[in-house]
Amino acid sequence: MRGFRVKYDRWLRDSPLLTKGITSAILFGLGDRIAQRIENSETTDGDRIDAEDRHGLQRTARMMVWGGILFAPVGHAWYNFLEKTVRGKGTASIVKKIAADQLIFSPPLSLAFFTYAGCSEGKQLRETLETAVAKLPPTLAVNWTVWPLVHVCTFGFVPLQYRILFINIVNIGWSAFLSRMASKDGESSSAQKLEEFFVQQMEDSEETAGQTC
């Protein structure tokens, strides 16, 4: 583990955007596969599952593109900007960073994700934007419940160079939630299972962060 951390530190120094992009792509893809397993958990038709899995690989690829090519560089720029703009390590500084992240960064990022998800599926831009706007409030409701707690550790304990990595670990659960929100079929039972998984994932991530911070 120590050897990997040394290598990861070197990768971050030599190619920060590439390293964060690859990490984000892998973990966003993992989150989507988890979401699809939850969605298919009540399905007993093997042929249907196989067909959905073939289609699901395309969905996973789209999530990996979002995580690696879009989220990673934007997140890298945002968290560096936030660190330079809001200085200090005290409670007031942490609260300001969390407020800025949740009020300035999260809403347009979520809107951009749903727009990207719809357009990458070949939907009309107008339909995609309408759907994205409709999904934004419930997404932010969950976002504002979970991420402020996560970011207490992000901004209070995690060094700047590791923040995208830490956020990506939490994003295993969050990307599963986003992927489920972006999918066309939204059965309440599957959504409930996903929410239960997501809450558990957040709790596990916070426990892990508490041990490592």
Q: How big is the Rg?
A: 17 Å
Query: How many strand units?
Result: 0
- Output mean pLDDT: 84
> What is the rounded distance between the termini?
16 Å
Poorly predicted segments: 185-191
Subcellular location: Membrane
Family: Belongs to the peroxisomal membrane protein PXMP2/4 family.
Membrane topology: Multi-pass membrane protein
Keywords: Membrane, Transmembrane, Transmembrane helix
Task: Please describe what this structure looks like.
The protein has helices at about 1-15, 15-40, 45-85, 90-120, 125-155, 165-180, 190-210. About 35% of the residues are buried. The chain is globular, with a radius of gyration of 17 Å. The chain has one domain. It is built from seven helices and no strands.
Give a summary of the structure in a few sentences.
It is found in: Membrane. The protein is mainly α and 213 residues long. 86% of the residues lie in helices and 0% in strands.
